[in-house]
Design goal:
Structural class: alpha/beta
Number of strands: 10
Strand content: 5-15%
Helix content: 40-55%
Oligomer: single chain
Mean pLDDT: 93
Radius of gyration: 19 Å
Amino acid sequence: MPMQASDTLMFREAHESADVVARQFAANERVVTELADALRAQPPRFIVTCARGSSDHAAAYAKYVFETQLGIVTASASPSVTSVYAAPQQWEGALFIAISQSGKSPDLVRNAQAAKAAGARVVAMVNVEDSPLAQVADTVIPLHAGPERSVAATKSYVAALAAILHLCARWHGDAKLIAALEALPDALRKSWDADWSALTDGLVDAHNLFVVGRGFGFAVALEAALKFKETCGLHAEAFSAAEVKHGPMALVGPHFPVLCFAQDDGTLESTLAVADEFRGRGAQVLVAAPGLSGEGFLPLASGLPAICTPLLTIQSFYRAASALALRRGFNPDVPPHLNKVTETV
């Protein structure tokens, strides 16, 4: 009997995301509140994130979250600057956030050590609480995703986004966002049940694909493009809706697949306009946008603040991607040439 999507580790682990997030919020409330209190009392001059792979896509989300909600410049560190070039950085008074599932990659550990030595407050958002990265950190925010055996990160990625939201909500003291955290696990459960079969059916024979998002949604566009490549053998590239017209659009013509992620904020109109322009070129366009339905749209729940929408989007996507992988003849749990833990220097 052919393998079903529900037989894969990717499916089963992604399905756990709602419970992971609920467990994480409860377990981390004290450490997150204490850190938020300390950061309000002594705000950092700037924030630096450091991560690889899916965790770096979570860091891209953190940039939009912290800059829009807190007004603090947030930049992504290039790990090789420290781990390979050994170039000292001026991180005095910074908040350095390292994000990792395993916490084992030597370059992340070296960067965290260098940041601490340079006077930064080091926070590790990590799934393995006794990892080398966690041991370096001043504060550890555990992801509480539990063991993740599929090579493709799913629940740990959603957990990283949730940890970022949790810290921001407590740091900013936004009552609306704090209330949204309480509603998020149930919204994730509903997102898992959303019918994204149009994506699975429509991309079986695809060779190339654009994934488009903007603002909060750009991070999950990056993540979806990675998952298309590693689990479905499908070449996909992610672009901001604000950047895709600056050259990449030249590749788009009849039947070229484009997947657009949108959220109900100031980026919605421009993202939908780009989708319409792609359709005008004859492209095969699918759009996930809260509350919008009909031909060419994937269902996406509305009702939560736009900052939460990317978590719902990627949860629906993971289920569709696990099914698409099998339809294309791939086992999403064991992508060719890849390992679960990638250790770079």
